[in-house]
């Protein structure tokens, strides 16, 4: 009998993604303000958006963690105290930090719980003990730590432990890569990572022989779904999904899959095969590189490296749009993100339960005039779908 | 200003002594990323160094998971600590271990990863105060810090500051074996002598600008990727004296032959442009001083996204979501605080950086019924606004 569930923690690169993640079942989201995060290219949250996001999350009894996990220079850190006071005032539920200066400022300026970012590469019990004394309340362990070792660290430190369960992985020990800094003039540890590890490289050995281009530094993506029972066994407090730069479709569907998996395992003590097949299929249709189980069971090494193209050339879900309005018995208003045609087979994904598949017939534009094609950046009225709710995602299975 | 270098043999130790070195670094193959000495050699070299009145400092700079920490602990148990004058560590777990297990042994903290601000470094140093005594004697700071910041740290920190003076620029550190991962493609991995020494080298180059000539070294600790050029401050010795730098480090472990210690010693004691140029020209790699004069690795961030469509909180109403040329403009009211009202003056910021102004002359709901106000979350049709595009941000023009 399980005593408690791990928190499902999802990425929220924008308000739309936050609503999608929480709507589809995440217990908590992590997001960044305009500074101090590691995704400078993401939308990130303004003060008002953060206030809205926190209110939305708390109305669903969900939590919001703010990432402050850059390694700030002296000039960056000057504005940190006021930002910390502000987010504390807005009621966020914790911060994610890696720099000891940031941790010191957060401790001084607020009583916010501090989660140690994976950027700090906390890999062992002794390190966990040190961070505990520094005031950290949760360890987001380095991605090189196995589940078994994570359990040991949790028991040894008495701290909450969070582990990544899904998404892109750094090839380096997190925080230990500065390729972008020296090649692109963009500080990877202040949000400017240029993904140099994802390029293909020609290798030349010491005798001058060259070998074909390959992605020798590019990591496969993590998929820890099948290992969920071990997360329960080791009493991991939070399972984290990477992907603040991904779409609302990704934020929503990935949250839904892990929500269902956690609830199912909690209730039944197992992950039924038919459900696993279904979830796997869904995960295969989301944007991803080759999947692997990372280092959750065996130490980081063989099998980490991508050995074929960037993204799998397979069927995938197209993100058609988000339901913005539901007029009872009349129509569902869709904000279109990917164009589709009248007659296309599309699917509304409800927050809970099975998807509703239907042919996109009788398309109307925003004001009710017939159209044959739903254009990107337009509003389209779909015939009323019982059960549809604002924030639902509509998708289409596309063949590559 | 002292200089320190790596001693790998009695011969090097003697040459370093002759060149005026008062401290040497000893790198154990199990504890140091680039180490090549075994326990016996460390013990002997440490004793010999002491007999020459040189401080032997043990380098323990690998990052370790729990299992690796256990293996390291075995080695640590075999070391003759009484011969070792200090230990330098990077992993916080190693720092914690030394504080607990080797009372009174001076500690040198490697803070080259992250730790770009004084608050952080000061806290790391303070953590090592035991019974009122400071255990940390030195911090090794990042080569990403510019001269002015290094000077500030030297002035404000209560311990010595060390920086790399000549040596490889580490770009990436991973525990994964990225070269032997490709063993099917790489003939050299079949060579037993390479396997036995756990050292494989290659040069990696991509088609991307400045991503060429990276030196890749794989050993038992994983893979290290280095910049094509070496870091060098040997033409900046007077400047380093001026800021009262405590220690400069010379690292030649990637080179087949060490530099002339005699010339190096003379250059550091009595720097001249001619001497430094001669030394640099004889160095087998091209050199760079990277960020020593300035670090502007955050200035490109503003170009990573279109800041014109980045929401600004003040007076924000919502976004344009659809345009019907000559007919209408649809605005999604996203602000929780403001609404759309007839007669309201608006400013639109388009994604292509145009600033448009208009007054709402006509306001309708999606059923094209005239209304006076469209509230938060809903959609309003206003007249066609020439040059506006979907994605434009809509602001209320402030009164007065």
Overview of the structural elements:
The complex is a heterodimer of chains A (400) and B (400). Chain A is α/β, with parallel strands linked by helices and 400 residues long. Chain A is built from eleven helices and 21 strands. Chain A has an eight-stranded parallel beta barrel, surrounded by six helices. In chain A, helix 1 packs parallel to helix 10, helix 4 packs across helix 5 and helix 10 packs antiparallel against helix 11. The two termini of chain A are 43 Å apart. By secondary structure, chain B is an alpha/beta fold. Chain B contains ten helices and 23 strands. Chain B has an eight-stranded parallel β-barrel with strand order 1-2-3-4-5-8-9-13, surrounded by five helices. A seven-stranded antiparallel β-sheet of chain B has the order 19-18-23-15-16-22-20, with no helix packed on it. The longest helix of chain B is centred in the first third of the chain and has 13 residues. Classes of the chains: A alpha/beta (400), B alpha/beta (400).
């Amino acid at each position: 009998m399980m005593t408690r569930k791990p928190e499902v923690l999802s990425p929220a690169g924008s308000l739309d993604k936050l609503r999608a993640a929480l709507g589809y079942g995440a217990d908590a989201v992590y997001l960044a303000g305009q500074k101090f995060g590691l995704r400078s290219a993401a939308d990130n949250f303004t003060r008002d958006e953060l206030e809205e996001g926190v209110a939305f999350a708390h109305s669903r009894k969900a939590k919001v963690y703010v990432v402050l996990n850059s390694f700030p220079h002296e000039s960056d850190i000057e504005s940190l105290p006021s930002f910390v006071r502000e987010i504390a005032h807005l009621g966020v539920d914790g911060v994610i930090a890696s720099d000891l200066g940031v941790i010191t400022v957060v401790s001084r300026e607020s009583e916010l719980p501090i989660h140690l970012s994976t950027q700090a590469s906390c890999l062992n019990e002794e390190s966990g003990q040190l961070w505990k004394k520094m005031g950290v309340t949760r360890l987001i362990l380095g991605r090189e730590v196995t589940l078994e070792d994570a359990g040991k660290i949790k028991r040894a430190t008495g701290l909450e432990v969070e582990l990544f369960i899904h998404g892109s992985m750094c090839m380096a020990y997190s925080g230990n890569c500065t390729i972008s800094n020296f090649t692109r003039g963009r500080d990877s540890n202040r949000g400017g990572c240029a993904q140099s590890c994802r390029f293909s490289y020609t290798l030349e050995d010491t005798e001058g022989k060259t070998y074909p281009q390959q992605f020798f530094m590019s990591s496969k993506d993590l998929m820890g779904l099948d290992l969920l029972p071990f997360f329960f066994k080791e009493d991991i407090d939070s399972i984290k999904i990477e992907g603040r730069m991904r779409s609302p479709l990704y934020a929503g569907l990935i949250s839904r899959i892990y929500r269902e998996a956690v609830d199912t395992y909690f209730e039944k003590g197992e992950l039924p095969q038919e459900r696993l097949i279904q979830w796997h299929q869904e995960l295969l249709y989301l944007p991803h590189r080759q999947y692997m189980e990372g280092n959750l069971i065996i130490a980081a090494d063989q099998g980490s490296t991508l050995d074929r193209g960037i993204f799998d050339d397979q069927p995938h879900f197209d993100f058609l749009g988000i339901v913005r309005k539901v007029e009872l018995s009349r129509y569902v208003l869709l904000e279109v993100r990917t164009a589709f045609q009248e007659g296309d087979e599309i699917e509304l994904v409800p927050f809970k339960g099975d998807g509703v598949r239907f042919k996109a017939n009788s398309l109307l534009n925003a004001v009710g005039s017939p159209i044959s094609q739903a254009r990107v950046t337009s509003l389209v009225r779909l015939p009323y779908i019982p059960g549809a709710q604002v924030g639902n995602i509509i998708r289409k299975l596309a063949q590559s | 200003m002292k200089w320190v270098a790596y001693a790998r043999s009695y011969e090097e130790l003697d040459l370093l002594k002759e060149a005026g070195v008062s401290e040497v670094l000893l790198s154990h193959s199990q504890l140091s990323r680039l180490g090549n000495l075994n326990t016996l050699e460390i013990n002997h070299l440490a004793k010999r160094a002491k007999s020459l009145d040189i401080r032997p400092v043990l380098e323990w700079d690998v990052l370790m998971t729990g299992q690796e920490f256990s293996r390291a602990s075995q080695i640590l148990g075999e070391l003759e600590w009484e011969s070792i004058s200090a230990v330098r560590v990077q992993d916080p777990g190693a720092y914690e271990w030394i504080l607990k297990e080797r009372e009174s042994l001076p500690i040198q903290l490697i803070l080259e990863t992250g730790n770009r601000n004084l608050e952080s470094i000061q806290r790391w140093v303070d953590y090592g105060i035991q019974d009122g005594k400071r255990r940390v004697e030195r911090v090794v700071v990042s080569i990403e810090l510019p001269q002015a910041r290094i000077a500030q740290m030297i002035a404000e920190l209560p311990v010595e500051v060390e920086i790399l003076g000549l040596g490889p620029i580490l770009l990436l550190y991973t525990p994964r074996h990225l070269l032997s991962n490709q063993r099917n493609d790489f003939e050299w991995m079949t060579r037993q002598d390479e396997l036995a020494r756990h050292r494989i080298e290659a040069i990696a180059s991509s088609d991307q600008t400045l991503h060429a000539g990276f030196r890749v070294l794989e050993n038992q600790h994983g893979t290290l990727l280095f910049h094509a050029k070496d870091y060098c401050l040997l033409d900046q010795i007077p400047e380093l004296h001026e800021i009262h730098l405590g220690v400069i480090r010379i690292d030649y472990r990637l080179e087949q032959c060490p530099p002339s210690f005699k010339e190096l010693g003379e250059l550091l004691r009595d720097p001249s442009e001619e001497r430094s140029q001669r030394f640099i020209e004889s160095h087998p790699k091209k050199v760079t001083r990277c960020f020593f004069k300035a670090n502007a690795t955050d200035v490109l961030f503003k170009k990573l996204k279109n800041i014109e469509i980045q929401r600004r909180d003040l007076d924000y109403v919502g976004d344009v979501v659809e345009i019907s040329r000559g007919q209408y403009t649809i605005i999604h009211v996203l602000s929780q605080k403001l609404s759309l009202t007839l007669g309201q003056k608006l400013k639109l910021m388009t994604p292509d950086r145009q600033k448009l102004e208009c007054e709402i002359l006509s306001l309708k709901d999606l059923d094209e019924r005239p209304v006076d106000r469209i509230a938060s979350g809903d959609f309003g049709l206003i007249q066609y606004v020439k040059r506006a595009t979907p994605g434009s941000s809509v602001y209320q023009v402030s009164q007065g």
